[in-house]
Amino acid sequence: MNVFESYESNVRSYSRSYPVVFHKAKNAMLYTDDGKPYIDFLMGAGALNYGHNNDYIKSRLLTYMEEDYIMQGLDMFTVAKSEFITAFNDHLLKPLGLPYKFQFCGPTGTNAVEAALKLARNYTGRSNIISFMGGYHGLSQGSLAITSNEYHRKAAGIGLHNVTFIPYESNKPNDTDSLAYLSMILEDTHSGIEKPAAVILETVQAEGGVNVASPQWLRALKTICEQHDILFICDDIQIGCGRSGDFFSFQRAEITPDIVVLSKSLSGYGLPMAMLLIRPDLDIWQPGEHNGTFRGYQLAFAGGKAALEFRRSTDLDIAVKRKSAYIRSFLGKLAAIDERIHIRGLGMMWGIDFSAFEDKLLAKKIAKKCFEDQLIIECVGREDRVLKLLPALTIEEEVLDEALDVIRKSVVQCVSTTGKVVSHQA
C-alpha cells in the first residue's frame, strides 16, 4: 500500500480517477514520476487557465522572490497589492466601464462566496438567497447551502437553510420557464418564499454539466433583480478569467453584476487567491468584519498582474475564441456519430452529454479510456454523465488535436459497445 492510501484521508477524490503519481508539468502537459506524459484537460479544475508553469508569469514570480519582497502582509498596504489593483483597473475594469471596489478574501473561491452572501444579507437585511438547480458554489457551510448537489449536501452534518432553488435556463419545450417562475414567486403574496437578498449564479454551470445561459436570459434575470431590489451575484470562479472568451463571462450579455466572485485562475499560476468585485455603494463592511490570515496572498498579486500582462501581450482572448470555434466544429462532427450525444459549451469549456444513453456509466467509461490513452478529463453533471473539456487556454494546437483525437476514439469505442449507433443522418 502506498503512502497516500496509508496516511491520506478518504476524502481524496481526483486521485481515485487518476491513480498515478505526478511530478512535473508544463503548459498543457502533466508528467508522472517515471516521466510518462499526460495531456491535461482538467487544469486544476480551472485554476490553470494559463497552463502549467507559464514562462512569463514564472519569471515575474521568481524575480519577486529573489528580491525578498513581502510574502505575507495580511491586508496591509503593499506594492504588490497596489500594482495588481492598478493593472486590473487599467486592463479590465476601466475599458469596460466597471467601477468596482476590490475585496480580497481567504485563499479559495468558497471563502469569496461566503463573503458575497454575508455582504448581500447585511446590505439588504434579508436572509434568503435564490440559487439555481445544477449550481456549484463551494463546500463550506454557506456556499454549500446554495450548492444543489445532493451528494455534497448530505455531508454537511446540519440543515442547510435560507436558500430557494429554481430551475436554470432550459431550451427543452416541456421544462419550467425559470424566469416566469421566479417572477411568480416574487410577486405572489402567497408564494411562501421570502424576498431574497440576492440571486447567485454561474453564467455557465461547470460542475452542473456545462449548462450555458443565453445572453437574453441573463439580461432578463438582471432586469427582474433590478425590479425587485435584489442583488445579482455572478460566480465567475471557473468560467471567468478568460475561459469564456472574454475575461468576464457576463460580458457577452452586456450586464453589470452587483457583485462578482473570482478565484481559481485569478493568480495566473495556480496560487491561492480569491476576491470580490463590489458595486461601490454596497461596500458597507466595518473593518475586519470578513477576515482571514491569507486574504490577499502577495505572491498571487504578483502572478495576477503578470497574467494580465501576458493576456494582453499575446492577444489571448483572440486565441481562445479561435480555439473555441475549432473545438465546437470538432464536437459537432463527434455528435453526428449518434443522435443521443449532445454538446454544450462556451469559450474553452465544453461538455459532451451522454444522458440520453441507457448506460449511466458511459461518460465515466469514456473518461477512463481517455486516461488509459494519456488524457486527463473529468465527468460532471447529474450522475456524472457529461464529459467536460477544460484545456489550458494556451494549449498548443497540435496538442489540442491529439487530445481531441483521443476523445473521438474513446467515444467511438465506448458508444459502439452500448448497442446500435443512432446516426443523425439516419
Automatic annotation (TrEMBL):
Stored InterPro entries: Aminotrans_3, Aminotrans_3_PPA_site, Dat, Ectoine_EctB, PyrdxlP-dep_Trfase, PyrdxlP-dep_Trfase_major, PyrdxlP-dep_Trfase_small
Protein biosynthesis listed as a keyword: no
SUPFAM superfamilies given in the database record: PLP-dependent transferases (SSF53383)
The protein's required cofactors: pyridoxal 5'-phosphate
Broad enzyme group: transferase
Range of residues in the leader sequence: none
Top-rank taxon: Bacteria
Keywords, alphabetical: Aminotransferase, Pyridoxal phosphate, Transferase
Pfam families: Aminotran_3 (PF00202)
Pathway note: Amine and polyamine biosynthesis; ectoine biosynthesis; L-ectoine from L-aspartate 4-semialdehyde: step 1/3
GO molecular function: diaminobutyrate-2-oxoglutarate transaminase activity
CDD domains documented for this protein: OAT_like
Keyword Nucleotide-binding: no
EC annotation from Swiss-Prot or TrEMBL: 2.6.1.76
Spans through the membrane: none
Recorded family membership: Belongs to the class-III pyridoxal-phosphate-dependent aminotransferase family.
Name this protein carries in UniProt: Diaminobutyrate--2-oxoglutarate transaminase
